[in-house]
Design brief:
heterodimer; A: alpha+beta; seven-stranded antiparallel sheet; five-stranded antiparallel sheet; 16 helices; 20 strands; globular; B: alpha+beta; eight-stranded antiparallel sheet; 30% strand
Chain lengths: 486, 404
């Protein structure tokens, strides 16, 4: 493919305006500014244009027009992703899905809904609540993030432990392929004829096409919910308690740990949940299901926590108290954001048995690099979220943040972990993928991508190295410290 | 080195065994005992341009479209064993040729449960993943791919690779395991898998009841099948007019004692339950692997609220049916007059918004209808994937959907 244009060709601009209307084709500097990055703010890049289509046909028209002019395109949901998956690298245009935001059908009898990709995650659950149903994947950004974005990233959330990630809840897709054709994959019963292309597309970070309709599985709202909060003197004991629960056979809906550094930040913020500031960690456990089955599970949780020396364990008496418990977890990112201008939310997964040792290692890395780091994590899944507060205007601190980030990923992969559990690879970790996969492992991924997008026009530069030669010539990854930041 | 099936090789064993599959016959199976040996075989087959029949336990080789010419069989049975089982973690890694029953027992011994419920004693881990075959406990276990955390494969170029990993949550790279699951050996040879286990239920009980074979009763079952402790629910009835109008319900409950008791009581309000051993559910499952020459086995899945319509049609056609009401799954077995009758049932399932796979049919019908159904507009994408993964058409040529 030839080098791509630095500016949007005039003829293409005319075509795009004709497709979506001038009001939905943003090209002015001020309009594009807001679309320079998603939740990963380290490396902003301005798109050539932002298109806001309102129908599948408009999406297909945009794709065909861009392809005809050899201009790459990038799908974007709400821009809440944390790995730069919706960033317009390689002089691309952004296709923003906020106008395709209708719930097209709810089939309560078969517990499914057909939605457009711009539907906000939490809005879907609200829309079906009166039917006794909800949409289970609940990423922290669920008040803003969209179903289309969730499909791209295979989003998870605290309740992944019991309910699984987005891939477990998508039955069928309509998508515009990179050649502009529209296909339907899967069906309402969630069983494809032939290869599981729905499974391959979910989590593909928008690199295989642009999803224009999603059929999702809905779940019954559980009749009973019990939320418990256990306070520990140290985070290692909290991790061990999680191991005991997993071993017991109880499958909680969620098991989340907040460490001492996060507790301090939360308690000093508007999210204060009344936690003891000298606690080493708190463990939040949520159980749900038939009320008759919950008391015995509560006993198991209590016993596991007490066996690991928890200082206290509380059970939420009402919804207000349940919300207070969760405030410590859900307010963590906001509270951390108060401590410095920038917050780097990391994401890695380790086998659960390695959690205690890895947490010590993560803290050691941060301390050695003189960084403010706190941990909030999905303990039941072994999914770490080390958060680093920093000021990217300080080049030295930024450099230390990047070095620490790499060391954290190296520590996690050294014990059999992976570099992302739910935020995606995007541009953030694309070149760290070699910490997990060899060139031989990546080759089938290149083949899959080429089967959908042989010309590499759909969200280029994400998920895997752009070309095989790139992977081969740069097997150890470029490293964050080599990334040119603004 | 010795010469085997026309190929030179060093490791593993060879087996002279004549196996007929739809469209082809092979006389020779190679059983590599290492990934390196599998690699050599595949590389050599590629150089010679000779296609392979990919096999695990060989229990479902009949379940395929007519093959294009095959040189010999490549079996994973020599790749055997559980190399890691993390009792604290609830994950294990097994070689593809390990029998499912062996993995099931190993997990059970450590207090876990393998959420693979494939019918038949000879099923291997690799075979279950390649065929994505489910059993009656799919209600609790979910899809086969839900249990697969990562896979080791050898590609058609002979290069070993892996995808996914050993952790329970992972979005690193494309989810190729989803692509390999259910691909019937058409893209790569699966050599090993990381599997996620489930905690063994504290209590597990099975019940049966004789009930009228009426739509209302089936709908009542469907309503109860979504109770939290229902692991399996199978409603079975004979072909209309052949076996009277009685149906039998089998239910397996599992979980914490109070919940199981509660759900059992709910079921007992509607049905006269008789407690039976949980092995009864295993027997139901394993019976699905059996079938007589000349008979039909059709598995359909339709939206749950339309399942009764398909049940009526299948029974009217003379098939004995087993229905999993929670999932809208129907297994129809027996004899049909013609391939057209079978095609008609599939079209009905598709018209109801579902799919239907022909797991068994008379040999003379082979080629008259696609075993897997019509992939529709996605066929071109699938053909493109097959072409890129297996450009020489070495693996199971012709046997998969649309003759891929």
């Amino acid at each position: 493919m030839s080098a791509r244009s630095e500016a949007l060709p005039a003829e293409l601009l005319r075509t795009l305006r004709g497709i979506v209307g001038p009001a939905h084709c943003l090209v002015r500097e001020g309009e594009l500014f807001a679309y320079e990055c998603d939740g990963l703010t380290l490396e902003p890049q301005r798109p050539l244009a932002v298109l806001l289509p309102s129908t599948t046909e408009e999406v297909a028209g945009i794709v065909r027009a861009c392809r005809a002019h050899d201009v790459a395109f990038v799908p974007r949901g709400a821009g809440t992703g944390l790995s730069g998956g919706a960033q317009a690298v390689d002089r691309s245009v952004l296709i923003e899905c906020s106008r395709v935001d209708r719930v097209l059908e709810v089939d309560a009898g078969n517990r499914l809904a057909v939605v457009q990709p711009g539907v906000v995650n939490a809005d879907l659950s609200t829309a079906v609540a009166s039917l006794g149903l909800f949409y289970a994947p609940d990423p922290s950004s669920q008040q803003a993030c969209t179903i289309g974005g969730n499909v791209a990233e295979n989003s998870g959330g605290p309740h992944t432990l019991k309910y699984g990630t987005t891939t477990n809840h998508v039955l069928a897709l309509e998508m515009v392929l990179p050649d502009g054709e529209t296909v339907r994959l899967g069906n309402r019963v969630g069983e494809s004829i032939g290869y599981d292309l729905v499974g391959a597309v979910v989590g593909s970070e928008g690199t295989l096409g642009i999803v224009t309709e999603v059929t999702v599985r809905l779940s019954p709202i559980p009749a009973g919910v019990e939320t418990m909060l256990a306070i520990f003197d140290d985070v290692v004991a909290a991790c061990r308690a999680v191991g005991r629960v997993i071993r017991s056979g109880v499958v909680p809906a969620a098991m989340e740990i907040v460490d001492r550094r996060t507790i301090e930040a939360v308690e000093a913020s508007v999210y204060a949940a009344g936690l003891p500031k000298d606690a080493g960690a708190v463990l939040i456990v949520e159980l749900d299901g038939a009320p008759v089955g919950l008391p015995s599970q509560i006993d198991v949780i209590r016993t596991a926590c007490e066996a690991e020396g928890c200082r206290a364990i509380e059970r939420a008496r009402d919804e207000a108290e349940r919300k207070r418990f969760w405030r410590a977890r859900k307010g963590a990112f906001g509270a951390m954001g108060r401590l410095a201008p920038d917050l780097y939310v990391h994401d890695a997964v380790v086998p659960r048995v390695h959690l205690p040792a890895i947490l010590e290692r993560v803290c050691e890395i941060a301390d050695r690099h003189r960084l403010k780091l706190a941990n909030v994590f999905h303990a039941g899944d072994g999914n770490l979220h080390p958060n680093i507060c920093f000021d990217k205007r300080d080049p030295d601190e930024l450099s230390r943040v990047m070095r620490a980030g790499r060391e954290i990923l190296e520590a996690c992969t050294a014990v059999g972990g992976v570099i992302t559990g739910e935020h995606g690879v995007g541009v953030e970790k694309r070149d760290f993928i070699h910490l997990v996969f060899s060139d031989e492992d990546l080759e089938p991924m290149f083949r899959l991508r080429a089967a959908f997008d042989p010309e590499g026009v759909c969200n280029p530069g994400k998920l895997i190295p752009t070309t095989r030669s790139c992977a081969e010539s740069n097997p150890k990854a470029r490293g964050y410290d080599a990334v040119p930041f603004e | 080195m010795r010469d085997a099936g026309g190929l030179r090789r060093d490791a593993g064993s060879d087996r002279l065994e004549r196996v007929a599959v739809p469209g082809a016959v092979v006389d020779h199976f190679l059983e590599p005992d290492s990934i390196e040996a599998a690699r050599e075989i595949i590389e050599e087959a590629g150089r010679a341009g000779r296609s392979l029949l990919i096999a695990g336990g060989g229990t479902r080789l009949h379940w395929a479209n007519p093959a294009r010419p095959l040189a010999f069989g490549l079996s994973t049975r020599g790749l055997h064993g559980i190399d890691e089982l993390e009792p604290e973690e609830g994950v294990l890694h097994a070689a593809a040729g390990t029998p499912v029953a062996e993995v099931r027992a190993a997990a059970r011994a450590e207090g876990w449960e393998l959420p693979l419920d494939a019918p038949g004693a000879g099923s291997t881990i690799g075979g279950v993943i390649a065929t994505a075959v489910q059993g009656p406990r799919a209600n609790a276990f979910g899809r086969v791919s839900d249990a697969v955390l990562g896979l080791d494969v050898v590609g058609a170029d002979g290069v070993p690779s892996r995808c996914g990993g050993r952790v329970v949550k992972n979005v690193t790279g494309y989810d190729l395991a989803k692509l390999y699951c259910g691909s019937f050996g058409s893209l790569a040879l699966i050599t090993g898998a990381w599997l996620r286990l489930r905690p063994r239920p504290a209590v597990q009980r099975a019940f049966t009841a004789e009930i009228p074979a009426r739509t209302a009763e089936l709908e009542a079952c469907r309503a109860l099948a979504s109770r939290g402790s229902v692991r399996a629910m199978v409603w079975s009835a004979g072909g209309r007019g052949a076996d009277g109008d009685e149906a039998r319900l089998h239910v397996e409950l599992g979980g914490h004692e109070a919940e199981v008791d509660h759900d059992r009581a709910l079921l007992a309000e509607r049905f006269a339950l008789e407690e039976v051993a949980c092995e009864r559910i295993d027997a139901l499952r394993d019976a699905r692997a059996e079938g007589q020459e000349g008979t039909v086995a059709l598995r359909a899945r339709v939206p749950g609220d339309r399942c009764a319509e398909l049940v009526d049609e299948a029974r009217a056609a003379g098939l004995r049916v087993e229905v999993e009401p929670a999932l809208g799954v129907l297994h129809g077995r027996g004899r049909l007059e013609s391939a057209a009758a079978l095609r008609s049932l599939r079209e009905r399932a598709e018209a109801l918004g579902g799919v239907a796979t022909v797991e068994r049919m008379p040999a003379s019908w082979s080629g008259e209808l696609d075993v897997f159904g019509d992939a529709g507009a996605a066929r071109a994408l699938m053909a493109g994937i097959k072409r890129r993964f297996d450009p020489q058409d070495l693996f199971n040529p012709g046997r998969y959907v649309s003759g891929l």
